[in-house]
């Protein structure tokens, strides 16, 4: 009996607990069903107007000298004087004396040739008298002058005397030129970039004594891609006698080491060939008076160039981040719903993009989503973010 009770009591307890659970479950109130709220994403929106946009093209290059000259003597001799301005970094004027070479030997050579000229002129006068006397003697003999030979009439001797005078006169011209060449002057307005001599040195013909670069002009060679070429007005080739009637294209140059200074340059010409390796066209910009801007633009320095381009009419400009896959943008309509619009990129610069869109409704104002999400769908409702971070901006630079 006790054994049977040990078996039945646990069974009865379990059955009782089950019945109690059923009663409690039957009397429990059902939870109220809650309606799911619609999640509306918040997006950054930029309102843009259709307008005409003047674009610019950016390039880079290295400053090159327009004229560069080496100071090389044409005569030999000891250097007796150097101009105090013939030093690296100094500016010199055209015709300014830079180097003086001892001209003693050349002065002596000139004196020798002038003395020789006097002797040859005397010899010529003597030959004229001899030729005249020979002619008279021939006539006095009763013979016709036409039968006399040139040698008898001393014509070759007279021609030789004249030739000797011409040779001496040429030697005098050279001697005077050599004296002039002992004074080396600046061939143009320039800055001294190198000097390799000092007073007392012996200068030899064609030895490099220093270098100059012109201050009147400098040049920059700028590479342009095919797309950039289509967006600017290239300078046309002009003959030497053709007058320039159109307005030149003025560009702005900046040296990264001196960003506060801006130099103006003019697009002067286009190279007639295209680089076969990278398919770029090179244009040459001329900088007038590059050393008169208050700051020096050294030859060989790197510069960034901004070239004004053509005007793109009836287009939209906004941040580059708004253009998806380079083919479309998301806009928000008047009902705050997303709409995909096909966009054609026309120009990019400094984080901004200029596009034309397929606009069937002829809208002139668009609310463009500047940071679209990958899960956007046509017709989704969105909410404009009116609290943008102060460190972020959808405005393209430039």
Concise overview:
24% of the residues lie in helices and 36% in strands.
Description of the molecule:
- The structure is a single chain.
- The protein has 398 residues and is an alpha+beta fold.
- A hairpin with a 2-residue loop joins β18 and β19.
- The protein has four domains: 43-54 and 312-384, conserved putative lor/sdh protein from methanococcus maripaludis s2 fold (Beta Barrel); 58-66 and 215-238 and 247-310, Beta Barrel (Elongation Factor Tu (Ef-tu), domain 3), CATH 2.40.30; 69-95 and 190-214, no CATH class; 103-181.
- The longest helix is centred in the N-terminal third of the chain and has 37 residues, at 104-140.
- α2 (104-140) packs antiparallel against α3.
- The protein is built from four helices and 21 strands.
Feature tags:
single chain, 4 domains, 398 residues, alpha+beta, Elongation Factor Tu (Ef-tu), domain 3, conserved putative lor/sdh protein from methanococcus maripaludis s2 fold, four-stranded antiparallel sheet
Gyration radius over CA: 47 Å
> Which overall shape is indicated by the principal axes computed on the Cα atoms?
rod-shaped
Q: Describe the biggest sheet? A: 6 strands, antiparallel, barrel
Reading off the top of the CATH hierarchy, the class of the largest domain is best stated as Mainly Beta
- Following the backbone from N to C, one meets helices and strands in this order, namely HEEEEEEEHHEEEEEHEEEEEEEEE
Q: Which structural class fits the helix and strand makeup?
A: alpha+beta
Which residues sit in consecutive blocks of at least 5 with pLDDT less than 50?
Answer: none
Query: How many E-type strands?
Result: 21
Proportion of helical residues: 10-25%
Strand order across the biggest sheet? Answer: 3-12-15-14-13-16
- By CATH, the superfamily of the largest domain comes out as Efflux pump adaptor protein, beta barrel domain
Taking the alpha carbons of the first and last residues, their distance comes to: 101 Å
Please, what is the average pLDDT? 84
């Amino acid at each position: 009996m006790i054994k049977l009770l040990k078996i039945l009591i646990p069974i009865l307890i379990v059955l009782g607990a089950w019945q109690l659970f059923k009663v409690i479950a039957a009397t429990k109130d059902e939870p109220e069903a809650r309606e799911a709220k619609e999640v509306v994403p918040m997006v950054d929106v930029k309102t843009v107007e259709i307008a005409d946009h003047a674009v610019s093209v950016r390039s880079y290059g290295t400053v090159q000298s327009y004229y560069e000259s080496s100071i090389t003597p044409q005569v030999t001799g000891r250097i007796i004087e150097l101009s105090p301005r013939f030093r690296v970094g100094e500016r010199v004027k055209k015709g300014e004396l830079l180097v003086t070479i001892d001209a003693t030997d050349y002065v002596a050579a000139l004196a020798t040739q002038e003395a020789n000229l006097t002797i040859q002129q005397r010899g010529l006068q003597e030959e004229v008298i001899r030729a005249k006397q020979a002619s008279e003697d021939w006539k006095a003999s009763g013979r016709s002058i036409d039968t006399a030979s040139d040698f008898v009439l001393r014509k070759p001797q007279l021609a030789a005397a004249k030739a000797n005078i011409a040779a001496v006169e040429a030697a005098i011209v050279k001697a005077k030129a050599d004296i002039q060449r002992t004074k080396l002057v600046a061939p143009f307005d320039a800055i001294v970039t190198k000097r390799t001599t000092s007073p007392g040195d012996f200068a030899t013909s064609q030895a490099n004594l220093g270098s100059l670069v012109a201050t009147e002009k400098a040049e920059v060679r700028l590479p342009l891609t095919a797309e950039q070429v289509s967006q600017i007005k290239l300078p046309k080739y002009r003959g030497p006698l053709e007058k320039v009637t159109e307005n030149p294209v003025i560009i702005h140059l900046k040296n990264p080491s001196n960003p506060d200074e801006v130099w103006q340059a003019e697009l002067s010409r286009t190279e007639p060939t295209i680089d076969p390796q990278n398919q770029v066209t090179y244009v040459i910009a001329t900088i007038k008076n590059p050393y008169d801007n208050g700051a020096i633009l050294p030859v060989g320095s790197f510069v960034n160039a901004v070239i004004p381009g053509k005007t793109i009419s009836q287009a939209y400009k906004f941040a580059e981040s708004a253009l998806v896959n380079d083919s479309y943008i998301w806009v928000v309509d008047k009902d705050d719903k997303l709409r995909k619009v096909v966009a054609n990129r026309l120009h990019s610069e400094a984080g901004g993009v200029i596009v034309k869109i397929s606009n069937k409704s002829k809208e002139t104002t668009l609310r463009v989503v500047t940071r679209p999400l990958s899960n956007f769908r046509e017709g989704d409702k969105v909410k404009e973010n009116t609290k943008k971070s102060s460190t972020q901006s959808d405005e393209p630079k430039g």
